[in-house]
Every structure is written in structure tokens, then in C-alpha cells.
Design brief:
alpha/beta; 9 helices; globular; 13-stranded mixed β-sheet; Rossmann fold; 28% strand; binds S-adenosylmethionine
Amino acid sequence: MYDRGLLRITRPSPAGSEGLELLEGTELDGSVTSGLVLDPATGRTYPVKDGYLDLLGRRTGVRNVANLTNFLPGAGPVYEPLWRSRSLTLLTGEKFPNDREIGIIADLARVDRGGLYLDLGCSTGLYTRSLAAKLGGRGKVLGIDIAPTMLKEAVQRAKRTAKRTMGVFPSFARADAENLPFMDGAFAGAVCGGTLNEFGDPARVLREAQRMLEPGGRVAVMGLLEAKTQRGRRVQRLLSAGGLRFFEPEEVTSLLDHAGFEPDPLRKDNLIFFAGASRC
Ligand SMILES: C[S@@+](CC[C@H](N)C(=O)[O-])C[C@H]1O[C@@H](n2cnc3c(N)ncnc32)[C@H](O)[C@@H]1O
């Protein structure tokens, strides 16, 4: 599902100043469920299939082995039940349910202001659909990812949640966070759960996010810090070989600062950080 109103701010080509147009397709409650959209600036078309807009086509957006694991068939359906539902409990060593995490992210992103929010590297859309439910009619959320299996599952999960939240439905697109295909200043906020550790170039993603946000817009990031124990360091060294990176707290603040944000004091909980910042 891709909210029809978002086509106007979607610009896969920097030359496109008018956004995309719906060429053909089916719609439900203002969202395109399947079909074809056109970029009038280039004449290129992009499909809406499996419930998401695919702006990458044959390009994978993959930069490392860690990225590749998200493309494995079957990865989407097992990601939340096997890992995401317990990840913060395992990483912090205390009971840390998803609801608590989402409350922190929503506060840092100041979702209570309403408006349009972007979820960077959304996987199966945990933040995307949770924030959409929190916003209700006061705003919209768009989740982007490069992995088709994750997006397909995100759409299915959002459909199931929408039944419980009176039809609130987020949008999903296959797009690269290192080259965000949206109009400058179009979003009130951006969120990013765990993905800063996985991006090929996290500094570039944060610069792109800054460009996407309106002045005073908020970014909220949850990510993993460098381990302090020998065992933790050994595990992280192994994971680094696959392209994951782990940050020192000062590094996170410095990345945000250099991307043009004014960072809040970093919140740390064992291996996890929560970073909030305002676009300068
Ligand atoms: C660790 S998962 C995080 C998922 C999600 N944010 C969450 O909180 O559960 C990282 C996701 O980022 C995606 N990803 C990696 N590089 C990306 C990029 N350059 N642009 C968009 N998504 C990317 C991967 O496909 C994967 O689904």
C-alpha cells in the first residue's frame, strides 16, 4: 500500500520536480495497492506490487554480507517472532518489550506533533506500523527498506494490525536510505531501529535524513554500542566481518552533529543507545 498523497513527494530521479503519477492500478482508501506509477521527468515507471512501491527494480542496494541476510527467502516471516520481539531484552539484560522501545522512539521523534514520518531500514515494519497506530489520523508513516522479503512481510503485518487500529495503514517502499528518493523537507521526523549499524555509509544516511526533514524536524535512532566485555568484543569482531559496525557513544553524537542535527544527550542501556536530535 502506498498512500496516493505521497506520490507527490516521491522523486526517484533528482531531475523530477513534480513527483510521481499513478498510471494504472487499484486503490483502497486513498492508497495504491497494486499498479504502475510514472516519473514524468524521466518517463520511467515503477511497480506497486506485494503492497509496496518498488523504486529500486534490479538494483539491490546491498553493500555488505549483513545486508544480504535480509534477502534470504523466509527471513521476513521469522524476523519479528524469533529475533525482534526479544532483541532488546537480550541486548540490555533486562525485560525490554517492544512497547517500551516504541514509546521511547515515539517520544524522541515527538510523534505527538503529528505529520509525516519516515522509517529508515524498516524491515518488517515494527516501528512503521506502531508509529502509524500512534499517529492515527494526525499523520502518516512511510517505511523504506532494500529487501523485498522484509517489505512483503511488513505489508502483511501492517494489514493485520490495521484491522485492530481502525484502518490506520502505513506506506512501504523499496528504496535506498543512502539516496533517499523524496522531496527535501517533506518529513516531520525520521526513525531508525537497529539499521545504523548495518548501513554501508551511516554518515551519508544521516545527511540524507537531514535533507528530508523540515526545519526543527526530529530524528530518533536506536542502535548498538561497542561491547565492553571481552566476549562481547569477540562476537562483535565476528559480526563486523559481515559489515556490521558498532559505535562508541561519542561517535553517534558526532555523526548526528556532522549531518546537521542538534543531538540530545544520548540515552544508553547496556549495549543499546537511543539517540534523538533536531534538524538545525
Ligand atoms: C537490523 S534490520 C532493522 C529493522 C527494523 N528497523 C527494526 O527495528 O526491526 C536492518 C534493515 O535495514 C535494511 N537496510 C540495510 N541497508 C539499507 C539501505 N541502504 N537502505 C534501506 N534499507 C536498508 C535491511 O534490509 C534490513 O531489513
